[in-house]
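Hey L., structure's done. Input below.
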Amino acid sequence: MKSAWLFGLMATGLLSACGESNTSTQAIPAPVANPQDTVLAGQWILEAEGGVMLDPQTSGLTHYNGLLYTISDASAVASQRRRLHAIDPATATLAPKPGEMSMANRVRRSCFSQYLNDEPDLEALVADPAEPGVFYTVTEDATRTGALSDRCQQRFEATGSTDYPTLLVRIEQHSDGTASMTHVRPLQFDLKFAVGDFPNDGIEGMALAPGRTLYLALERDNAGNPRIFSVELDEDFWQQTDFAPVSEPALDVPTFTSGRHPINGLEYYLPEGAVSGFLFAAARNDNELWIIDAAGTLPTKKIALQFSAPSGDLQNCAASEIMDNASIEGLAVLGNTLWMVNDPWKANYMKNLQCQANESRYKGMAPLLFSIALNDKWFE
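Output:
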């Protein structure tokens, strides 16, 4: 992490972009950093025209051509939805906002066109290194949309999970920064997986391995545990329109007897010279980074993390403040750095407020970008 980040965020333009609040908000006592945890210093993500990024509900993180990319879910403000958000990691500044995604004819003619055109809940993002400009995303909560037609309902009712199918979507970016949804396929879970019917606790992380295995991280199943599934993106995958059955690789995914421990972000990493790679999983509720051996032989490592936000007011506040709730929902490896983006949790984000200079940022649900250097010991 570059120390310049922490101070470069304190320009007055950040505060003015969100506007001063007309109401008084009681600052919460500052959380204390656990000396055993790694503290990651965040950087407010800025719009190209200035000011922080307002209420994008950032979900997923990937990289392409040296830039980081994220996407917004259905609870974001309308101006942020159905777009690819490109971020310069050196400055945490967005590229100019592109227009909304269009639809290719095959998607427009599909059973899912209404949902994808209205308020799709896009929850993860991964770039395909084998196809420049191609990204994949996945949908989660479709309860806000209308039901499928009778014909489509009969065809896609055997989801093995929610009533409305989870959709895997292929996106192609154009030279002007806009993008199109080019293909869509519903996912099917075998009943033996006991995924359950949890519309807002579905797939929230994706990672693509060099061998074309696409990993899918589920927040929770019937037993309340996170799961990791996979599909193989072979040459014919996107030429089909029926269900894409998922598999469950033999991985050491942590299990629990109580509580909520979802995986909200996923990334694949192949160490130099290694035959098999590792999955980074963001355990949002646990403030942990899980390092899962994709070969299924090594035990999973759990790295305890805490996150800090810059205050922007050196006269009245500390330079940074430990966050009460960061809610990481995107991971991406670029070079030797693991980048993370948070999805501001609307019910909990104001719990982070300590310095009044940050009030408008937290009220505006502004996300932060974090990073940590890769550590060889993680893969031993």
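The first helix runs from residue 3 to 8. Residues 1-25 have pLDDT under 50 and may be disordered.

-- N.
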